[in-house]
């Protein structure tokens, strides 16, 4: 879209690097950039190479969404990447897997309790960032010396969490789709087992844990809906006092508004009650009143309807499309003719 007369385009762009890492850069040279262009960007030393993913006013919106000031002092974009820049960048990217394997072997030899999960080269090949995960603090000074001597580049170690590791590596979740953290999820909120309890999920670590080993982020997606539905819903530890005995809640369906109760002496026999009926009984119990039994209350929920068979097709016979067997009719006609001829002969 062309801008109104006298209005300048926003001079910041969003650039994507390896594994969906994105940064904002200032287009101070006024280069004509569009989505998909490969550019050389400013780095702490040398330059990096990335792909433009967003331009124009949408960058301003994205910066505010990530709580960054549009007027902040951003690094610059040097130029559109030349073929020489792209060739060197691709050559460095091709060495990452081999260097990652060798660095893991070095860490094992030194006995370091850490896992190097990914390696990212700078665009000019002068620096490599090693991403690792660890439970405790790791003294990797000797590891940096050994890697710098073996690879001949500057080394930067960056510790990331297990969720960030899954985001960088990517993969397919148990739902059959690509991981949310590696596609669209930008912030990682803490997920607790309370989210599973509110949604009445079985606390099975094998089903609730994602590829990162932590609880799945999708447990928080519907949590607010469940919390809203639970505001006026009886708790699961509700006890109903009846003349027949005390009843305990065995199961509940939040969205259908149904609870199942059973007596203390007969836990295998469940009685279905609606949310309104349970609240009504609780009000009576608060007034020191009791209902006669759960069976009487639950019987109101089941009304037997007279079911009559209805044929939606409008036909009665299931064999209406069968062809009549003509052979039998012919045999009957032959038998009749034979009987007639025999009668004539006998009469003659």
């Amino acid at each position: 879209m062309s801008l109104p007369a006298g209005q300048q385009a926003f001079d910041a762009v969003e650039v994507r690097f390896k594994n969906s890492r994105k940064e904002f850069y200032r287009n101070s040279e006024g280069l004509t950039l569009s989505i998909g262009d490969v550019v050389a960007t400013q780095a702490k030393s040398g330059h990096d190479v990335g792909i433009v993913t967003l331009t124009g006013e949408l960058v301003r919106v994205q910066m505010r969404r990530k709580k960054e000031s549009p007027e902040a002092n951003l690094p610059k974009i040097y130029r559109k990447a030349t073929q020489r820049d792209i060739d060197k960048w691709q050559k460095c990217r091709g060495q990452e897997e081999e260097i990652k394997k060798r660095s893991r072997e070095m860490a094992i030899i030194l006995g370091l309790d850490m896992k190097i999960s990914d390696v990212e080269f700078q665009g000019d090949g002068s620096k490599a960032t090693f991403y690792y995960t660890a439970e405790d603090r790791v003294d990797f000074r000797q590891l940096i010396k050994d890697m710098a001597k073996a690879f001949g580049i500057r080394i930067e170690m960056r510790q990331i969490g297990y969720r960030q590791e899954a985001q960088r590596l990517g993969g397919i979740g148990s739902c059959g789709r690509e991981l949310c953290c590696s596609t669209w999820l930008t912030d990682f909120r803490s997920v607790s087992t309370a989210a599973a309890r509110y949604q009445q999920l079985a606390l099975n670590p094998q089903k609730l844990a994602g590829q990162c080993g932590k609880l799945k982020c999708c447990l928080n997606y519907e949590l607010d809906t469940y919390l809203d539905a639970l505001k006026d819903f009886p708790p699961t530890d509700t006890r109903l006092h009846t003349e027949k005995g005390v009843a305990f809640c065995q199961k509940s369906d939040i969205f259908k508004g149904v609870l199942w109760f059973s007596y203390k002496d007969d836990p295998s026999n469940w009685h279905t009650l609606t949310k309104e009926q349970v609240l009504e009984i609780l009000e009576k119990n608060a007034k020191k009143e009791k209902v006669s039994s759960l069976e009487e209350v639950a019987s109101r929920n089941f009304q037997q309807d007279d079911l009559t068979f209805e044929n939606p097709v409008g036909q009665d016979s299931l064999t209406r499309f069968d062809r009549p067997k003509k052979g039998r009719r012919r045999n009957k006609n032959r038998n009749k003719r034979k009987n007639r001829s025999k009668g004539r002969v006998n009469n003659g």
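The chain has four domains: 12-81, 90-160, 168-227, 239-301. The chain has a mean pLDDT of 85.
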